[in-house]
TrEMBL record:
<dbReference type="GO" id="GO:0005524">
    <property type="term" value="F:ATP binding"/>
</dbReference>
<feature type="transmembrane region" description="Helical">
    <location>
        <begin position="128"/>
        <end position="152"/>
    </location>
</feature>
<keyword id="KW-0597">Phosphoprotein</keyword>
<keyword id="KW-0547">Nucleotide-binding</keyword>
<keyword id="KW-0812">Transmembrane</keyword>
<keyword id="KW-0902">Two-component regulatory system</keyword>
<keyword id="KW-0472">Membrane</keyword>
<dbReference type="InterPro" id="IPR011712">
    <property type="entry name" value="Sig_transdc_His_kin_sub3_dim/P"/>
</dbReference>
<feature type="domain" description="Signal transduction histidine kinase subgroup 3 dimerisation and phosphoacceptor">
    <location>
        <begin position="173"/>
        <end position="237"/>
    </location>
</feature>
<dbReference type="Pfam" id="PF07730">
    <property type="entry name" value="HisKA_3"/>
</dbReference>
<dbReference type="GO" id="GO:0016020">
    <property type="term" value="C:membrane"/>
</dbReference>
<keyword id="KW-0808">Transferase</keyword>
<feature type="region of interest" description="Disordered">
    <location>
        <begin position="364"/>
        <end position="403"/>
    </location>
</feature>
<feature type="transmembrane region" description="Helical">
    <location>
        <begin position="98"/>
        <end position="116"/>
    </location>
</feature>
<keyword id="KW-0067">ATP-binding</keyword>
<keyword id="KW-0418">Kinase</keyword>
<dbReference type="GO" id="GO:0046983">
    <property type="term" value="F:protein dimerization activity"/>
</dbReference>
Length: 403
């Protein structure tokens, strides 16, 4: 509109229109370069950014100054030139507070120029005035640019704050893990050292008592390993709904049509037991499935959590000869759970059931396999015994050793 006013004013010159267009292109180009630099400088720290005087004397600012002066001369308006150059300066990254002080100063100057040039904005030939439009355009353009960049800076600071908070939380988690691991291992190592030292002293005069101390030390090693596994499981644990969602995303990324049915209370499911099962079943679907569809489900019924994974079977499958199902049965059976499989011509399904309350046995013992619970059906209906890896050494009650 400013260019239109210049073109329709009395005594217009064709060369002025050419200069106006060229100066506009130069100014817009310099503003785009400054805006790109502003964004890239926002990702740098204060120490990595160029010095302020170098930013002010950079070639885009000089080009913007030349373009603004040319615009003002072509339009015979100091207000246009000043407003345009003020906009260019607003695109430079200033220090805290400097931009707003500069904007206030610029607004005062632009208001003075507007009052000085106001009579020239009357155009009798068209019976109108551009005074209000020029006031709004000249005064609001630098202000809106400054507000937009301020909003951009606020968003960047919020993102940096979130990233810093995440790094701090991760550091605190690592420190907490290190402290707990130090306490756990330090305690057990001290006990083991005392037990072995006592066994060494008793070896000559009482070999049986020394052997008891060695057994206690071995038991302490088992406890240390179990405690370390439990500690690692707590820090690596992922909520089961997230495990299932990740599995569904992975299967979809592989081109499968995935159905996911998860109960609303899935966050209460034992992720330490079912999480590895979800990952193992997902791997089996990708390796041995037909690659068309898969179904994942988790529900709670009568005190049990039931995890179901089904898919179309592949033309040639080796899952029945692998250790995948045995590993699942081993893990689930240790917690009193049960694994059932079903293979049909167009469907292979694995259903894992674990008690909602840990430690409650889920199925009767497997006939003919003493001491093993949680029998699971293999791929062809054969029983897969669930084995427990827990070992507790005999511990005499009268040793009085610190635990």
């Amino acid at each position: 509109m400013w260019g239109l006013w210049m073109l329709v004013r009395p005594g217009r010159e064709p060369i002025a229109a050419v200069v106006f267009v060229a100066a506009s292109a130069l100014t817009v180009g310099s503003a785009v370069v400054l805006l790109i630099r502003y964004r890239s400088d926002g990702d740098l720290g204060d120490a990595d950014r160029p010095a302020r005087w170098r930013r002010f004397l950079s070639w885009p600012v000089v080009a913007g100054l030349v373009g603004s002066i040319s615009l003002g001369v072509a339009a015979a308006s100091a207000l246009l030139g000043a407003a345009t150059f003020a906009t260019v300066l607003c695109l430079v990254r200033w220090g805290p507070g400097l931009r707003w002080r500069g904007v206030i100063l610029v607004e005062v100057i632009l208001a003075a120029l507007w009052f000085a040039e106001r009579p020239r904005y009357e155009i009798p030939e068209i019976g109108g005035s551009f005074a209000v439009m020029f006031a709004v355009f000249g005064g609001m353009l630098p202000l809106m640019i400054a507000l937009s960049l301020w909003s951009w800076d606020v968003v960047l600071e919020l993102n940096r704050a979130r990233a810093t908070e995440a790094r701090l939380a991760a550091t605190q988690e690592r420190l907490r893990l290190a402290a707990e691991l130090h306490d756990l291992q330090g305690h057990h190592l001290q006990v083991i050292a005392l037990q072995l030292e006592l066994a060494e002293r008793m070896l000559a005069r009482d070999p049986d008592a020394a052997a008891d101390q060695i057994r206690l030390a071995r038991s302490s090693v088992d406890e240390a390993r179990a405690g370390t596994r439990e500690l690692a499981g707590r820090f690596r644990g992922v909520p089961l709904p997230d495990e299932l969602a990740n599995a569904a995303d992975l299967l979809r990324a592989a081109g499968l049509r995935v159905s996911l049915d998860v109960t609303a209370e899935a966050a209460d499911a034992p992720a330490d037991t079912l999480g590895p099962v979800v990952r193992e079943c997902t791997t089996n679907v990708l390796k041995h499935g037909g690659g068309v569809w898969a179904e994942l489900s988790l529900r709670r019924d009568r005190g049990f959590w039931h995890l179901g994974v089904a898919n179309d079977p592949g033309a040639v499958s080796t899952l029945g000869r692998g250790a995948g199902l045995e590993g699942i049965a081993h893990r689930v059976g240790a917690g009193g759970g049960d694994v059932q499989t079903h293979r049909g011509p167009d469907r292979f399904a694995v259903t894992v059931s674990v008690p909602a309350v840990p430690g409650v046995p889920g199925v009767p013992a497997v006939p003919g396999v003493p001491g093993r619970e949680g029998g699971a059906s293999g791929r062809n209906g054969a029983a897969i015994p669930a084995r427990s890896a827990t070992f507790t050494a005999p511990r005499p009650a009268d040793e009085g050793m610190p635990r």
